[in-house]
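Meet the record:
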Amino acid sequence: MREPLTVRRAAPGDEPILRALRLEALTEAPDAFASTYERELARTTADWRRWFSPGVTFLLEDAGTPRGLVAGMHDAEDPGVVYLMAMWVHPALRGSGAADALVAEHLAWARGEGAWLARLDVMATNARARRLYERHGFRLTGQEKVREADGRVELRMERPLDSAA
């Protein structure tokens, strides 16, 4: 029988895990993120530790092996708005509910932080990710931006946090 997937909050000491997951994500889906493999490779342990606070990072584990992550942070101008960022799940776990578990944990964190709105940007070409977020109540806002680095279009999605819908 398959061991259940688990999601846990990253903590100091998890920097090597976060680094390995982020580099794997950028290798597997380089166009999905605003960063680059080279930029993430150059980060120091202190840089990775900054992911843990004041925001949050959750790690997805499959039988104890790290296989995904999601990060969250408050908007600098409105702390009632939180961002869902850096979302990635290993391809072998896609369709297993792993991504749903990460998004649910992020939303629970956001509610616990007193946020009223969750926001994210998703690649316009990533229909699978948009469907994931829509299952969790996110809706397109009509806002989009073109990334300067590569000309790819990102779509803004938001979800009110005053209900479980």
